[in-house]
Amino acid sequence: MMSYADLLHFTLPEIVVAVAGLLALTLDITVLRKSPLSNRLRSAVIVALIGCVLAIHFLTRAPHSYGLPDGMFVMTPLTHIVQIALLVLAIFTALLARSTTFTGHIGEYIALILFATVAMMFLVATQNLLLIFVALEFLSLSLYILTGFDKQSRQSAEAALKYFLFGGMSAGFLLFGISLLYGLSGSIELTKIAAALSGPTLDPLLLVAIVMVTIGFGFKVAAAPFHLWAPDAYQGAPTVSAGFIASSSKVASFFVFAQVATIALAGATGGGAFHGYSPGWVPVLAIVAALSMILGNLAAIAQTSLRRLLAYSAIGHAGYMLLGLIAHTQQSLSALVYYVITYALASLGAFGVLGALESEGIDRIADLRGLSRRAPGLSFCLLVFLLSLAGIPPLAGFFGKFYIFSAALSAEPHLGLLWLVLLAVAMSAVSLYYYLRVLKQAYVAESPVREPALRIALLTRLTLWTLAALVVLLGCFPGVLLGWIGLG
Question: Are residues 350 and 217 in the same domain?
Answer without folding.
Answer: no
